From TrEMBL:
Annotated Dihydroprymidine dehydrogenase domain residues: 40-131
GO molecular function: 4 iron, 4 sulfur cluster binding; glutamate synthase (NADPH) activity; metal ion binding; oxidoreductase activity, acting on the CH-NH2 group of donors, NAD or NADP as acceptor
EC number(s) stated in the UniProt entry for this protein: 1.4.1.13
Name the record gives this protein: Glutamate synthase [NADPH] small chain
Record organism: Streptomyces misionensis
UniProt keywords, alphabetically: 4Fe-4S, Amino-acid biosynthesis, Glutamate biosynthesis, Iron, Iron-sulfur, Metal-binding, NADP, Oxidoreductase
Cited InterPro entries: DPD_II (IPR028261), FAD/NAD-bd_sf (IPR036188), FAD/NAD-binding_dom (IPR023753), Glut_synth_ssu1 (IPR006005), Glutamate_Synthase (IPR051394), Helical_ferredxn (IPR009051)
Xref: NCBIfam families: GOGAT_sm_gam
GO biological process: glutamate biosynthetic process
Record pathway: Amino-acid biosynthesis; L-glutamate biosynthesis via GLT pathway; L-glutamate from 2-oxoglutarate and L-glutamine (NADP(+) route): step 1/1
Cofactor(s) required for function per UniProt: [4Fe-4S] cluster
Length: 487
């Protein structure tokens, strides 16, 4: 272990963020560069040698957290990096974007603030990149087998890297113009600068993975042609069908799905636009949806110069602390969170339901009508007399996703069966009802976290490797039926 008295001698300390007035003027990551390394050793020392590390249960990747905490405390960065990469292909992504269910399961969290696992993780991988420890792992021999991966989000990239390192020839197909999926166009630059994706892609290219952008399977290339070209296929197309809001006035101009709004802001950072075609500048912005995607819309609107930003959530405001019986340790609790975007301003309204939109004579949205709601007999019910309207000249819908894309023909062309939730069904090896066709990530699991996506990609890769060669030494951290630890 690290320091036996570390958790007694040191309190929890996290990465410092840049001043709000400074960071809303740019799109760089919100954290003070270099602020973690001076404190990470003490934070790693708080890891308790707890006998049964429940952080392993919280993280579907099975990250060896106590081990790399110990190495980080001792400043053995090479060993810490080796332990970190043993279970996680992309810790620079999870260390920035994951909501850290491992910390919710930390034993220290029973009666203190948990170890800053996420901060230690990102410190180790950033140090590894800076020190040149992250190098291509080129396979010693090729199997002669070919694999197509559909989708370049975290699940697809993890599956592709694992299969390439196993010696298979892998091509990743991405319908967007750049690799990365939602990592590229769904995550704002201020949460993760895209240079982190770019250098990981270059590592994968050096290992032998091939990338095909601007190709949508089902439209640009049919399933039959793909099956002829490859010995196996991994569908990692995500859960990209957005939940809509069917209320009067939805057809007005100025109302967008979050994934119509956020990618345009990212394309500005890529140099594709000087100004986003959908900008919040000078507008009253309303974000419908209280999750992480909604917070991303809030932070983006701040940086575009919105006149005001209001975020609506239909559910009641969560507790600020874990409920001892409703959400007991070590489950992942739903708590009231103040993200970096919320620190930057705006109003958050809970228990609010949108009843209709109101526009001007030109068909542009101008007002959003809402009402308070409450639970009555287990159902959300509108409170009489609580109707009101708020200004809304730009509205983003961030209410989650309902399943993988069905409009492009991918599901039908492959002849895939769906489960009761509308996700692509698969067996214990992540194989669909079509031999040689596998599914990983949100397309099979439904909307989930980045750590689950990477774990799915790694596990599906084992299934593919076994299908192609008859056996596999690749790790499979989860089963398709595994779910997060919950009440």
């Amino acid at each position: 272990m690290a320091d036996p008295k570390g958790f007694l001698n040191h309190g929890r300390e996290v990465a410092r963020t840049r001043p709000v007035a400074e960071r809303v003027k740019d799109w760089n990551e919100v954290y003070v560069p270099g602020s973690l390394l001076p404190i990470v050793g003490k934070q790693a020392s708080r890891c308790m040698d707890c006998g049964i590390p429940f952080c392993h249960n919280g993280c579907p990747l099975g990250n060896l957290i106590p081990e790399w905490n110990d190495y980080a405390y001792r400043e053995d960065w090479a060993a810490a990096y080796e332990r970190l990469h043993a279970t996680n292909n992309f810790p620079e992504f999870t260390g920035r974007l994951c909501p850290a269910p491992c910390e919710s399961a930390c034993v220290l969290g029973i009666n203190q603030q948990p170890v800053t696992i996420k901060n230690v993780e990102v410190s180790i991988i950033d140090k590894a990149w800076d020190s040149g420890h992250v190098t291509p792992r080129i396979p010693e021999r090729l199997s002669g087998k070919t694999v197509a991966v559909i989708g370049s989000g975290p699940s697809g990239l993890a599956a592709a890297q694992q299969l390439t390192r196993a010696g298979h020839t892998v091509a990743v197909y991405e319908r967007a113009d750049r690799i990365g999926g939602l990592l590229r166009y769904g995550i704002p630059e201020f949460k993760m600068e895209k240079r982190h994706i770019n250098r990981r892609i270059e590592q994968m290219r050096a290992e032998g993975t091939r990338f095909r952008t601007g190709v949508e399977i089902g439209r640009d290339l049919g399933a039959r042609d793909l099956k002829k070209r490859y010995d196996a296929i991994v569908i990692a197309a995500g859960s990209t069908t957005a939940r809509d809001l069917p209320v009067p006035g939805r057809e007005l101009k100025g109302i967008y799905q979050a994934m119509e709004y956020l990618p345009l802001a990212n394309k500005v950072q890529e140099g594709d636009y000087v100004v986003s075609p959908v900008s919040a500048e000078g507008k009253h912005v309303v974000v419908i949806g209280g999750g992480d995607t909604g917070a991303d819309c809030v932070g983006t609107a701040h940086r575009q110069g919105a006149a005001s930003v209001t975020q609506l959530e239909i559910m009641p405001r969560p507790n600020e602390e874990r409920h001892p019986t409703g959400q007991p340790w070590p489950t992942f609790p739903i708590l009231y969170k103040v993200t970096s975007a919320h620190e930057e301003g705006g109003e958050r309204i809970y228990s609010a339901s949108t009843t209709r939109f109101e526009g001007d004579e030109d068909g542009n949205v101008q007002w959003l009508h809402l009402a308070e709601v409450e639970f009555v007999d287990g159902k959300l019910t509108q409170k009489p007399g609580t109707e009101r309207r708020i200004p809304a000249q730009l509205v983003t819908l961030a209410m989650g996703f309902t399943g993988t894309d069905r409009e492009n023909g991918l599901v039908e062309q492959f002849g895939l069966e769906l489960d009761e939730r509308g996700n692509i069904a698969r067996d214990a090896d992540f194989q669909t009802n079509v031999p040689g066709v596998f599914v990983a990530g949100d397309a099979g699991r439904g909307q989930s976290l980045i750590v689950w996506a990477i774990a799915e990609g790694r596990s599906a890769a084992r299934g593919v490797d076994r299908y192609l060669t008859g056996a596999s030494d690749l790790p499979a951290p989860i089963r398709p039926t595994d779910r997060a630890l919950a009440v």
